[in-house]
Amino acid sequence: MTKRPRAEVSMLFMLFSILFCVCLILANILETKQIAIGPVNLTGGLIVFPVSYIINDCVCEVWGYRKARLLIWTGFAMNFFFVAMGALCDWIPGAPYWHNREGFHAIFGLAPRIAAASFVAFLVGSFINAYVMSRMKIHDQGRHFSARAILSTVAGESCDSVIFFPLALGGVVPWDVLPGLMLWQVFLKTFYEVVALPLTIRVVNHLKEHEGEDVYDEGVDYNVLKIFNI
Hints:
Blueprint: H1 11-30, E1 34-37, E2 40-43, H2 49-63, H3 65-91, H4 101-108, H5 112-139, H6 145-169, H7 178-211
Antiparallel strand pairs: 1-2
């Protein structure tokens, strides 16, 4: 029997994956807080969710689309597990002396409609982000990292918002208000990426030097289901 070569990932990739999963799970919790900045209404998830796109950019730039695909599906699985366990615990009746059901439910009682919209939007947006990063890197022969980091975020976040808001909030939030919400989300998350870009560039350069990798996805199969093809 021919022994298949073992697929391995580096320690830094593993640490980035852990941070990616933490950001996704934390975003679910922070989303329960509504924030008003002047006339703009936002959710607390905006503080941390864009970090997941920055990590996605770093992973795709250094290790390539295959590793980014593994990262995205790992994040999806961990996020699903967190939401499912939170929903299960929320469903189980509390003890007679426990009086914090409303607070617990507000954080962990994510409605199935919102959860489904969040999962679908995350997968589509993240894979679009990784695909644009990968294709632009090949097209630009490794140049213009800043441009592809920003444009991939615009593409990914736009798809994320176009899917999430109508599915999760359509009919709850007036339809004429939804386009404005989506535009603000895309603008602010992209602005977040631009502000963080100098740090992102330094992190990417350090990763390439430390890992000795700078992957170009020539001939890569972009099938999102080939999870373990790394």
